[in-house]
Fold these 2 entries.
Entry 1:
Amino acid sequence: MTKILQNGGAKVTEVKAAISVLGSRAFSLNAWGMNYAFHVDANGDLIHDHFGTPAAVQPTEVGNGHISGWATGMTDEKRELPDSGRGDFRLPAIHIRTGAGHTVTDFKYTGYQVMRGKPELEGLPSTFGGDRDVSTLIVTLEDEESGLEATLRYSVFPSHNAVAKSYTITNKGSEEVEIKRAASFTLNLDAGEWDMVYLAGDWARETNQVRRRIDVGTQGFQSLCGYSSHFFNPFVALVSSETSETSGPAYGLSFVYSGSFAVEVERFVTDRVRANIGLNPLHLDWKLAPGESFTTPECVAVFSDQGLGGMSRNLHRLYRNHLSRSEWTHRHRPVLLNSWEGMYFDFDAEKLYTKAKDCAELGVKLYVMDDGWFGVKHPRTDDHAGLGDWVPNPDRFPNGLKDLVDRATALQVSGSKDKLKFGLWVEPEMVNPQSELYEAHPDWVLHAGKHKRTEQRSQLVLDLSRREVQDYIIDAIGSVLASADVSYVKWDNNRAIHELPSPATAHAYMLGLYRVIDSLTCRFPHILWEGCASGGGRFDPGLLHYWPQSWTSDNTDALDRLHIQFGTSLAYPPSSMGAHISAVPNHQTHRVTPLEFRAHVAMMGGSFGFELDLQSMNDDERRQIHNIVALSEKVSPYVLKGDLYRLASPESNYPAALFMLPDGSEGVLLAFCMQSRIHKFSPPLMLAGLNLNAAYEVDCKTYTGSELMRSGLKMSWDSRDYQSRVLFVKRLPDNC
Ligand code: DGJ
């Protein structure tokens, strides 16, 4: 429940919740370790004052220095909503073609409201929280000439040093306008030496961390795939050139959206830096008729003065507690086995049942049937046919899907009180031309006039901006899920978007997708949903709002996974990562790594499992499965709820991650030696996040926090590649 505390316009000084307002014209959003402040200037513009370590609300200027230049005063205003055509020559956040045909807008302040809690963004994913978690400042602006109103919402989460921002443009004028650009968040930084850090990659090598200097001019990255993409993630950190993993200012901007986006960072000639993050302007051109409104997706901004590690932990805590609405978010996820790499398309009900029995005998709790189970006229026996026809294939399931699910879920899991659970794979946004759905509705596919419909993996993309397509998916997938006792769904998406009928369809598609997912997750709230897009192609906060986890990469090689999982953790909590043990030689890289190493790497993900044919393992490996499952269940609570300290990155050859419960009482350390080095010692492993004066037990030995953090743990490794350790850390009582 949210409550309006104060309406705008009143000339009073107000301090409510985490928001202080001075004389209706200066605003400060106050968190435990940061504040965000701006004011209204004499022209009615919203001018940014501060974002960072807590500081005075009023701008702290010493002297009246005046910098001269050709366009002085017009080029460097730090506006909260930079519009275009006046007072500024930098990239604007918004650019709107008005009814008069020009793109000049002049949004002036009209009032504000403060409320406890946070309003929902209708139709869009967003962070959430109760009256004690978050407070919201709503500021309204108006462009008199066009009749456009902008309603800016800033929600501050004090205990996470986070501000979530979105805004709504309402056309109160009499003519249609076209929104050409609407970045959700503008970050203003003072002149200085800044770097940007972001995640770039490709299929099977997602989330490589890139760090580069912000130079004079514009620099950035984007997705034009229609989805958030493997290529670039909708996240950017801006840090001082001296910021490290453990110290220095770090700003993280995370865009809560799953479609095309753009990050534009501009260091102007004055050396001031502006970063805009939001919808990709090339996929927008949104027409707004009189009376209509347009709401931007939300962007979350976090700040830490404890480097990239502190920034990630702020974001992780916020996302663990205030993003994913699934009932599984804080719950232990069952150890699963996914059939894909073990069987690909080669299965039928009897084969699946045999594998399910094997899983139950070895202590696996959830059996997931991946791609290939559907299609009647066009059976999905490979990836050329069947997508769109969500009916179990009668040749594979002569007694129906329910019969298999009933038999599998009657199996007792060895060493546990549980019965085996059953999950399945879907890819609902897609259609193969070889399908009954395409034969009936070729017009339901995204296409641009008579242009050829580009096929990728022999599939086309359904136009989810259309209501009838959304309803078809809701019905088709809903019927399958209602037909049997399904506990888990993997929602895949294996191609990018090409021929868009119009730029605006890109965003309309996302709104349609969110409606479909919202409807299905509300109807089946007990199902554990996992996102996937050929691996991590849609690992974004938008989908993590509905689903608690996402498949991190199609690359299941343990060595590559260390890079991918450490990279992903820059912006996403490990609790949201799916990570599995797969066969060796690995199917993507052909690398052979020991089972223990593969297991420990996969334990870094909140959803741990297997992706192989258990029967292909030798007797010695099979005997280890029970212990691996038991260890993963011991590690899981720390990964799900703990704060992550990236003690050393994979680049060091000795990566290590420490997960400590937020109260600092217990944790687990995952440490790795990637390659053995002849006659070289590994550096001591400095722990972090401990109390210097407290005593801790690690690996049955007692240390002080100071020893662990200042002298470090001496890790000794043998002369062989791919070694790993799992060490539990326990704080001992103070009098011990
Ligand atoms: C891509 C996914 O990332 C894989 O895990 C698997 O589900 C295949 N699609 C199935 O087609």
Entry 2:
Amino acid sequence: MKEDFGEDFQWGIATAAYQIEGAVHEDGRTDCVWDVFARKKGKIRNGDHAQHACDFYHRYEQDLEMVRSLGFGQFRFSISWSRILPEGHGTVNQPGIDFYNRLIDKCLSLGIEPWITLYHWDLPQALEKTGGWKNRRIVEWFAEYAAICANAFGDRVRNWIVLNEPMAVAGLGYTTGEHAPGDKGIHHFLPVVHHLALCQAEGGRVLRQLVPNARIGTAISCSYVYPNSTSAADVRAARRADALLNRLFIEPALGLGYPKDAFPFLSNIKRFMREGDREKLKFDFDFWGLQNYFSMVVQHSYLAPVMWLKEVPATLRNVPVTGMGWEISPVGMYEILKQFQKYEGVREIIISENGAAFKDSVVDGEINDHERVTYFKRYLAAVLKAKQEGVKIGGYFAWTLLDNFEWAHGYSARFGLVFVDFNTQKRTVKESGKWFRNFLKDSKM
Ligand code: BGC
């Protein structure tokens, strides 16, 4: 089956700095918003925190060897902004740069291609103090940070992802407050969206200028949205949800503007736009990273002012779900790929994350996570179907290497192909990891 994807198809595994590194106060790193958020009572399940996480900061060599032994040729990781710039901007922390240099060199020595994500949700707290993503100055700060990374790592790293799931930052971080910095309020949503969308394009421009031959993308979450009924109100609600979840960050970059047609509320974003911004929002990305986990059913709701919609949870719909109650929907993956293929400006799609959390248990030293194996098989079949029908998909990254700090869920949700015992940091490859090893066996690297 692997052969069906073609020789050039890139198989990778994705991670994020904050979820695995630990060592949060080592070698000059300062707090990011998640360190502060995790110290607040009741924000993270079981009071968990990421001070040690998977201790990847110290164990990256063995962990990368494991990536190699599982057969993946591509490794996606993110850079912790506050390791590089403890104040968010200004003075560079050389030990932070040194860590990522060691990590990149280790990848290369193993024949693994490194993929850098510049921003995976861990904003330096120093910047949050001055408004974080609400403050338009974030565009300058982000450009400075991007340039430092480009200059430090661009000689060896070709693949770059500017932002990871900006919608999660705007929606969960600054609107519902479920994620750091937990700054709740619908009035934050539009300015934060606009500043993220500006940074998305600006980061692309910085990389284009400083890294010759860079392959530049950015990663967005996406979910195929179904209306709960054929009623006009539900169909309109589904279009609004689609505008928010799938169109909000790609369309301005493609020069199409924000998707106000489906969601008039978005016209208020003009209050935060300055002259020339429509141009500044554009960037011609080499690829779009799509991250898909589940599809969604929504209905109209009078109880939700502004959005006027609510999700019909999968758990109430009698459909198969993962351990987190997310609908298992390979057909949703297929549909969303077809939907993105319709954009003329999309050159290539990389599935930059896909995976599932289930309740794993260790029996006689083994983790037989057959549900996860089935999940991957079914989602990969959907990806293949879309590819065979002409969707330009160049690669697939499984989420994720290690069980890790799953944001507000703490360590309660395990997504890894490798089980981590957080008391001892012992790693054990799960059945799903072994399945990938077999599947990728012939991969030429
Ligand atoms: C994020 C990851 C996260 C995963 C599973 C994605 O939204 O990029 O950081 O762990 O989903 O929730």
